[in-house]
Design brief:
- The complex is a heterodimer of chains A (498) and B (486).
- Chain A contains 21 helices and 2 strands.
- Chain A is mainly α.
- Chain A has one domain.
- In chain A, β1 and β2 form a beta hairpin.
- Chain A starts with 5 loop residues before the first helix and ends with a helix.
- Chain B is globular, with a radius of gyration of 22 Å.
- Chain B has 486 residues and is mainly alpha-helical.
- Chain B has one domain.
- A two-stranded antiparallel sheet of chain B has the order 1-2.
- Classes of the chains: A mainly alpha (498), B mainly alpha (486).
- Chains A and B meet through β1, α5, α6 and α7 of A and α17, α18 and α20 of B.
Chain lengths: 498, 486
């Protein structure tokens, strides 16, 4: 067995162990050990990957392995990683680890579905076979229904159903797209790298077909990446989900969308990606600006952050569609950075909500004096979100906009400037919210009795802040990792699309 | 001319099933109800044991078996048929396991022998239908499969709904048989033969006679598979019939008919012009079946009625695998059938056990089932997810493979079917929502299920979890499939 498969095996073992153990302590022990093992594995993978790259391993995908699954249909369980997947696995490892501590008091069934969700996420990022990838993608989606529906807050049933149906609707498009790619490329392999390298040879997917399947695949993944106008599940879903699920969802699951768009839609159908990019650039441009403006008028903290996620995830797709190396590198760093920041945000909102029992910013005042630790962390998360230098958001957005501006034509320049304006809007809603809820004097007497974060709550918050600061202060470490993965794909797209 | 008795060896599956039926007949005489009181005395595991032994025995020689025919082509055999028959066997076995608790009721104990025998007779009919090489043989099989079915539907004879369901079933079954027979007469008129193997060469592709015959044939089969617009009997019959019989109807008879339809359409109506015609016909039938059934299912409040519409839409997916008329299509059809069987029976096993213990069938009665019977709710969720096509459960794989098989021939249809899976996901989730999320003041009381039901649930759950992930099942079936045309 290939060692990448351990990422799938650990959650499987965790599921089994969770099923068998009794009592809250047993569950906590299993989750702690399991999520620590996952985090440890992803750190080990990152280090090992960088060492191997430095030692001259220059294959596009490292640690590849392939096992026959459904032989008559050319379906294999194939794994392999490049820089992008390693970065995403690291992100998932961190979020699952911190998410476990944030949901410390939850029951067994919650953790079962939570672990199944992580299984899907990790499986998705290690797969390089379209079928396996699609399967893991759907494995990651369905636990959301129960996680939100049973353990959520607010209008949870509506949100859970809306989210599930919209995402599954996306995957219907996606499945069509996958069939299109598979049969378009000769119907002999589902392996992404193999299909990509066939494109100039005998099995080129012809252009007419690319024009059909590219939009389908892109929209299919785009739904999860909060592509306008398919983003409407996101605010409701995030707002209703329990804290750790919001973290995992905004932090990792939405990245599945961007990753899939890049890895499957654009990589395998480069000509169509090049020719049709303008349509999706406009849509993602709308996501970025509209998401930011929507966040300005929300009063629920989770809604603010959810719309902010729409805006930032829109920026990921926006940068990918710019089809150049700098922007694409920025996009992947943005995935990482947004994943960490938004997870931090949701964790903090969950902790504040757990104390005040309201998320309405009109009812919250002067929390800085009451819970200084949470308030300070909240300010840090906010500043990271609006792109303060020294934190990860700045690195990501800077790279994206520098890359995007390299296009000399008016269309791209105009869109880039428009998207840049979202930074200002972000500052507006973040500072408004921070000012409103943290400063001033507390008017609600009930709130004066509240306590600050407990050690078990502080731990995940500190881990996340360290990661955000690490990317912000030493970006080269991450950008080297990511560039190595982005370069071959972008070059491939540009070479084929000419 | 001497009859070569070794020909009977070819039809060993039918003969062994007949033997099982006869043994049960004798056993029923011996363990018959107490003569004085007229009440049943013993609820025996014998049918279950015999059927399992027979299924295993059938599967073993399958590895070395080759294509064969007997009685001048009246009876035709391919190893694939053993697979299909074994799938049906497994299904019947699960039905028997589910039925045990229901048959232990005082009013049913006395009739249990009849239940097993009548069920097995319909199974025998399906066997003959599957292996037929001649339209008369096919028709006899079809009738043998549907007439005893009516007795099964009416099995709770003192219950008004059961009798009504049976009346609806038999009337429409006879009507559709008449249509089918009428169609066969057209086909006979056009080609001058009823043998499948001769018909292909003698059937004029462009004649109106052939076309009308084919349309009538498809309508007759559409009734058996309960495709829209021949589905009108389904909801009432499913609701009225005893739950185990509903389960049997929803999978077994459907599956056999769909497989036969693939064989006949691929073998007999195989000229390019005809293939085009039936593809157009099936296109609209499938679109109508999947879409209408999905829309109707959303509004249901009775769980059995709900499963009826779910079964109609699932049948649409099953028939989708006929579209390509290829070996891959055949594999995916049989695989889909197997997976659908375990998932659907998983749901029905829970419905049945809940009905037997509490008498409740409404969807709203299931509100809060998770609080009182978490294990049942969990198993039902797995099966529902499998029906909706969600990985890692088997339903995802079977749907994916059916779509994959049909994609080249029918891209638009696959897309429509995919969009429909979202609607179906919605209504399956409604049940999950009822069990997990909705609150209930008077939930179904907590109870212990009997061992037979547990065995049925175990089989179904094992199937739902393993059939997809373990790739060798599909590969094994694929080893036997062939292009249905001559």
């Amino acid at each position: 067995m290939n060692f990448l498969s351990i990422f799938v095996i650990i959650p499987l073992v965790m599921l089994l162990a969770l099923w068998l153990v009794k009592g809250q302590n047993g569950i906590r022990a299993v989750m702690t050990v399991g999520s620590t093992a996952l985090l440890g594995m992803s750190i080990y993978l990152t280090v090992q990957f960088l060492l191997d790259r430095a030692a001259g391993a220059d294959a596009e995908m490292l640690y590849t392995a392939s096992f026959v699954w459904f032989e008559p249909l050319h379906i294999y369980y194939s794994v392999g990683v490049d820089g992008i997947s390693v970065a995403m696995l690291l992100l998932s490892g961190i979020i699952v680890f911190t998410g476990t501590f944030v949901s410390w008091d939850m029951c067994k069934e919650y953790f079962l579905w939570f672990t199944l969700l992580s299984l899907g996420v990790f499986g998705f990022f290690i797969s390089i076979d379209m079928f396996a990838m699609f399967m893991f993608y759907e494995v990651a989606l369905i636990p959301m229904y129960l996680l939100i529906g049973v353990w959520g807050t607010g209008k949870k049933e509506y949100s859970a159903m809306k989210l599930t149906l919209m995402l599954m609707g996306g995957s219907a498009f996606l499945m069509c797209g996958i069939f299109g790619i598979f049969f378009g490329a000769g119907g002999q392999t589902m392996n992404i790298t193999e299909i990509a390298h066939q494109i100039n040879g005998a099995h080129a997917i012809d252009l007419g077909q690319q024009y059909i399947w590219f939009p389908m695949t892109f929209i299919g993944f785009g739904v999860l990446g909060a592509l306008f106008p398919f983003h409407t599940w996101s605010p409701d879903g995030h707002a209703s989900a329990p804290t750790a699920v919001s973290m995992l969802h905004a932090g990792v699951l939405m990245k599945l969308g961007g990753y899939g768009c890049f890895r499957i839609a654009m990589y395998l159908m480069p000509q169509a990606a090049n020719d049709l990019a303008w349509i999706f650039l406009i849509l993602t441009g709308i996501s970025v600006v509209y998401g930011a403006f929507s966040a300005c008028v929300q009063t629920d903290m989770k809604y603010i952050n959810a719309y902010s996620s729409v805006s930032h995830c829109g920026l990921v797709l926006f940068a990918l569609l710019m089809l150049n190396q700098t922007a694409a590198t920025g996009a992947v760093i943005q995935m990482l950075s947004h994943g960490l920041m938004t997870a931090l945000f949701f964790a903090l909102i969950g902790m504040i909500y757990g104390r005040t029992h309201t998320r309405d910013i009109r009812e919250l005042n002067g929390l800085m004096r009451i819970m200084p630790f949470l308030a300070v962390c909240y300010v840090i998360a906010g500043l990271g979100n609006l792109g303060l230098p020294g934190l990860s958001g700045f690195v990501a957005e800077m790279t994206i906009f520098v890359g995007s501006f390299q296009h000399a034509d008016t269309f791209h320049r105009f869109l880039t400037i428009l998207a840049c304006s979202s930074i200002v809007t972000t500052a507006v809603y973040i500072l408004r919210m921070v000012g409103k809820i943290l400063f001033g004097t507390c008017t609600d007497e009930h709130h004066l009795q509240l306590t600050d974060a407990k050690p078990i709550e502080r731990f995940p918050v500190i881990v996340l802040i360290c990661c955000i600061a690490a990317i912000g202060l030493a970006p080269f470490f991450v950008s080297n990792l990511v560039t190595g993965g982005v370069t071959p794909i972008v070059q491939h797209i540009l070479a084929v699309a000419g | 001319m001497n009859l070569d008795y070794s020909q009977f060896l070819v039809m060993r599956e039918e003969l062994s099933l007949l033997a099982v039926i006869l043994i049960l007949f004798v056993a029923d005489l011996l363990f018959c109800p107490d003569k004085k009181s007229g009440k049943g005395i013993y609820n025996s595991p014998l049918p279950v044991i015999l059927l399992s032994v027979m299924t295993l025995c059938n599967l073993i020689p399958c590895c070395g078996a080759t294509d064969a025919e007997a009685f001048g082509g009246m009876y035709q055999y391919t190893p694939m048929m053993t697979i299909v028959k074994s799938v049906l066997n497994v299904g019947t076995l699960i039905v028997f396991l589910m039925a045990n608790k229901w048959l232990s009721r005082p009013e049913n104990l006395v009739k249990q022998g009849e239940f097993y025998m009548v069920t097995l007779f319909t199974l025998l009919g399906m066997y003959l239908m599957i292996s037929s090489g001649h339209f008369l043989m096919f028709f006899i099989g079809l009738e043998l499969a549907s007439i005893p079915m009516c007795a099964l539907v009416a099995f709770d004879k003192y219950r008004y709904e059961s009798a009504e369901a049976a009346a609806k079933y038999i009337l429409l079954a006879l009507f559709s048989s008449a249509l089918l027979l009428y169609g066969l007469s057209f086909i006979y008129g056009a080609s001058g033969t009823l043998y499948f193997k001769d018909m292909f060469s003698q059937l004029p592709g462009d004649s109106l006679l052939t076309l009308v015959g084919m349309v009538l044939f498809i309508s007759g089969m559409g009734f058996k598979i309960s495709l829209v617009p021949f589905h009108l009997w389904t909801a009432d019959t499913y609701e009225g019939a005893p739950t185990v019989v509903t389960a049997y109807l929803s999978v077994i008879s459907k599956g056999a008919a769909a497989f036969v339809m693939l064989i006949v359409l691929g073998k007999v109506f195989d000229t390019a012009a005809l293939v085009n015609e039936w593809r157009i016909l099936l296109f609209w039938i499938i679109v109508a079946s999947i879409t209408l059934a999905n829309l109707f299912a959303i509004r249901q409040t009775n769980l059995k009625r709900f499963m009826a519409f779910s079964a109609i839409s699932q049948a649409g997916y099953l028939v989708l695998a006929i579209m390509p008329a290829s070996a891959q299509g055949m594999t995916s059809l049989v695989y889909y059938l197997l997976v659908y069987l375990v998932a659907n029976f998983g749901v029905f096993a829970v419905i049945n056990v809940v009905e037997q213990n509490s008498g409740k069938l409404g969807i709203s009665d299931y509100n809060g089932l998770y609080e009182t019977n978490p294990k049942l709710a969990f198993l039902m969720t797995l099966s529902l997810f499998s029906l909706a096509g969600i990985p890692p459960f088997a339903g995802f794989f079977s749907k994916f493979f059916v779509f994959m098989a049909a994609f080249q021939e029918a891209k638009l249809l696959v897309f429509i079917a995919l969009v429909n899976t979202i609607v179906s996901l919605y209504y399956y989730l409604l049940i999950v929502k009822a069990m997990y999320i909705s609150k209930n003041d008077t939930p179904i009381a907590s109870f212990r299920s009997d061992n037979y039901s547990r065995a049925a649930l175990l089989l179904c759950t094992a199937g739902v979890v393993l059939l997809g992930i373990v790739g060798s099942v599909y590969t094994y079936i694929d080893g036997f499939s062939y292009i249905p045309s001559l």
